[in-house]
Amino acid sequence: MKLYLVPTPIGNLEDITLRAINILKEADAILAEDTRTSGVLLKHLGISKPLHSYHIFNEHQTVQRIVNQIKSGKTIALVSDAGTPAISDPGFLLVRECLRNEIPVECLPGPTAFVPALVNSGLPADRFTFEGFLPHKKGRQTRLQELAQEERTMIFYESPHRLLKTLEQFAQYFGSDRLASVSRELTKVYEETVRGTLPEIIAYFAEKTIKGELVIVVQGKEPEKGKRKRDRSTADVEEDEDE
Ligand code: SAM
């Protein structure tokens, strides 16, 4: 009786752990955001299992049914279309309900888009905030105003058709000297990471037809004078611990 959350590749099919494959093989059933997408992966891995749909539109209704299934002794694995379930994907409601019912929950470590994007950015990775997708309309302006004061590195998921608008708003709210990066198509054939100030990145993408999946990483606000500089190295962190 257990719920596993199993990360799956964000592009390159080799990015799945041996343990993830074993858990998928051993589970009584697999819940998938899109059964066709996950069906392709499972076929590639040679796994044939009952595959049920679990997506954002039926999440609320199906949670209780799944909890009851697990309580009856089943082991269920949840996967999303790509990356780690519950990270800008369905999963949180099921995890919370399982925990409320004293069902053991285990999320395997594995692929997720924001970690390689953060590390590739070259911006401080010691403290960061993952913002996922910004609200499209209601609350967007307030969120941008709040984030203008954020000193930690910020990570955003974005779709290609909104990229330029979002970068322009970042420049408007955060200032045009902020450094940033856009990682596109991570782990895939046309992977690229573009780094620079916000206007430099806007100029780069304004020239192109923007395609694929994207993660934006933006430098946090410089701390006010007198506060500790934030470009901390590992050595700085160790030094702090010795203080
Ligand atoms: N659960 C996923 C994870 O762990 O990263 C995120 C799913 S969310 C619905 C999809 C978004 O993740 C995309 O719009 C994009 O912002 C980001 N993403 C996923 N795969 C990516 C990739 N290969 N390269 C860049 N961004 C990616």
Automatic annotation (TrEMBL):
Catalytic activity: cytidine(1402) in 16S rRNA + S-adenosyl-L-methionine = 2'-O-methylcytidine(1402) in 16S rRNA + S-adenosyl-L-homocysteine + H(+)
Transmembrane segments: none
InterPro entries: 4pyrrol_Mease, 4pyrrol_Methylase_sf, 4pyrrole_Mease_sub1, 4pyrrole_Mease_sub2, rRNA_ssu_MeTfrase_I, SAM_MeTrfase_RsmI_CS
Residue span, Tetrapyrrole methylase domain: 2-201
Function: Catalyzes the 2'-O-methylation of the ribose of cytidine 1402 (C1402) in 16S rRNA.
Subcellular location: Cytoplasm
Family: Belongs to the methyltransferase superfamily. RsmI family.
Stored HAMAP family: 16SrRNA_methyltr_I (MF_01877)
EC number(s) per entry: 2.1.1.198
Protein's name in the database: Ribosomal RNA small subunit methyltransferase I
Gene3D superfamilies linked: Cobalt-precorrin-4 Transmethylase, Domain 1, Methyltransferase, Cobalt-precorrin-4 Transmethylase, Domain 2
Principal location class: cytoplasm
Stored Pfam families: TP_methylase (PF00590)
Stored NCBIfam families: 16S rRNA (cytidine(1402)-2'-O)-methyltransferase
Keywords of the record: Cytoplasm, Methyltransferase, rRNA processing, S-adenosyl-L-methionine, Transferase
